[in-house]
What we know:
Elements: H1 2-33, H2 47-52, H3 54-67, H4 79-104, H5 111-141, E1 147-152, H6 156-167, E2 173-179, E3 188-189, E4 192-196, H7 201-207, E5 212-215, H8 225-235, E6 238-241, E7 254-258, E8 261-265, H9 274-309, E9 315-321, E10 327-333, H10 341-345, H11 358-366, H12 373-379, E11 383-385, H13 392-401, E12 414-416, H14 418-421, H15 430-442, H16 446-460
Parallel strand pairs: 1-2, 1-5, 2-4, 5-6, 11-12
Antiparallel strand pairs: 3-4, 7-8, 9-10
Amino acid sequence: MIKDNQKHFNRxxxxxxxxxxxxxxxxxxxxxxxxxxxxxxxxxxxxxxxMSWLIIIIPGYLxxxxxxxxxxxxxxxxxxxxxxxxxxxNTIGLLLLFMLLYVTKVIHFSRDVIFIxxxxxxxxxxxxxxxxxxxxxNIRKRGFNQxxxxxxxxxxxxxxxxxxxxxxxxxGYAVRGILDDTVPSGTEYKGIKVIGRIDNLLVIxxxxxxxxxxxxxxxxxxxxxxxxxxxxxxxxxxxxxxPDYNTIIPTIxxxxxxxxxxxxxIRYVPLSNTFYATVKRLIDIGGSLVLLLLTSPLMILSAVxxxxxxxxxxxYRQERVGLHNRTFWMYKFRSMEVQxxxxxxxxxxVKNDPRVTSYGKFMRRTSIDELPQFYNILRGxxxxxxxxxxxxxxVEKFREEIPRYMIKHQVRPGLTGWAQVNGYRGDxxxxxxxxxxxxxxxxxxxxxxIKILFMTLFKGFVNKxxx
Length: 467
């Protein structure tokens, strides 16, 4: 059974990790003192003294890997999360090693060895675990190492769960059947049959060696949830609950413990975390200062050109809606003829709009008109990356027309964003823009911000949809 297999896999993974840690540490020593990469033949400590540290390093890193959930089944941990946990564990290990060397006053231990080991070990652990993941997927596709599951409740949640299992045979899930009181026995969905009533659990569980029971009741059956959980718990089989709430909570929720009371948060917004928000703000401050300095010659040239080609102010400000629905003044180089506030509010700019100046067209297509927004970023009105802010008039319009539109105001608006680098700028689908904005809000990481900035650098400045 898979429960026993998982124990064996975990033990094997620990052995593999120990070997990888030792091999990477030896390789780091070799690169430092033997290979031609470093010209440092004289060693204050002997090879044996360096290798004796493995007595501390191997168990220490294995404990860190356990603490960072690197021994959970690969079915429930994706590659990106696993890589993130590997980096976190190794970073903590690096800091602890430096601290230990400082406390023990080991002066002659080469810090370069630790840095080399840190990089090599992250790469090697990632490669080793991906190789294991590939091997497990192959054997699961062939029908081995299967996880046998019984579903309790024939509902939309059950059908969606079966759909995902069918689409991902590498997960190794095998659904043995469904129990339900509202649908007759023999009813079938994609080869999975209703095999009896929910009360049959007491008969089925002793006769079958199941790995899991998945409760997939419909919303109208939740009054029976406590009774069914009690039946499942009697079996001793691992039980999980797949809620039928996709139409109510159409996103990724998360739970928190409030002194023993589980609370479901409808939406996970990473930037609501103070630490993440602080890190992002520090990046914004540093990035905007550097970019203001780098683009200052271009901004001076643009300011002069705007002034010479069209009467009116150089900088144009417009009210936009930002974080927590607060309004702020967003700054741009003026790219249109001066007009009254009423005329300005009428509509978006359209193709061949006569209000746009000749140099304004060039600035809009190359995004030069957006450069003054580095000042907005420095002030804290905006971020380098985030959903683009909109005018209050359109916010009021879209909040009634587009579901979940106002969620975008849970984070700071950005100079560039996930929607923009995917082509949704200017006169494009507002629905698709919101879809991409929500993905960004719910899946934010520093890595995603860096990816968006690089995509902006290579393909995000020129906007074919800007008029």
